[in-house]
Amino acid sequence: MNIKKELEMKVGIANDIYLNNIEIDPLKIKAIMINEVVPADPLQDFYGDPDAYYLKTTIPLFQGAGAEVNSIQDILQMGIYITNAVKTPKTEYAIEKISIENSLPYLETELSFFPNVRVIMLMGDVAKKSFNMIAKKATKKNVVPAVSTYKLRNSKIYYEGIRVMPSYIMTGGNILIEKSKVTMVTEDIAAMLEIIKQNPY
Length: 201
Hints:
By secondary structure, this protein is α/β, with parallel strands linked by helices.
């Protein structure tokens, strides 16, 4: 399945929406990590250049969690798919609610492609907000409580039988500087890897 083609067919084509143009077997995906927002240059996204800006922080976080990965393909091979909650590049420092809302149909449809997912990791507040908006449509309530992420990290939150793990943003220049956040994100990734290892196909 080509994610971009499938999403454009189901949701529609929009000029400013950036989608993952990759071929993937959705049945092999056991975990989804939802990052905050697409970069202004698609080549810097997870599935862009081999040395893309987004991978410069993501791969070390996986390695810190004990995963032997050197590329996005290695991460996919482990059954982990990474996407962005907001599919339009941000123009301001903060992401506007309208950007989240415009991207929501794409994210919701994208998540529906993967029937064997055991874990969804929400990397940052925008991912958390987006996922809550999707869940609220179905259940009329938020899945992730409005509590600081560090207080939620050890909570066992489930949505439709899937473990939902709130964590921190894994892209951007600041992440590798903030040592406490690096520690927490690598611990969260390690916990996710353990869950998918315990739940083979």
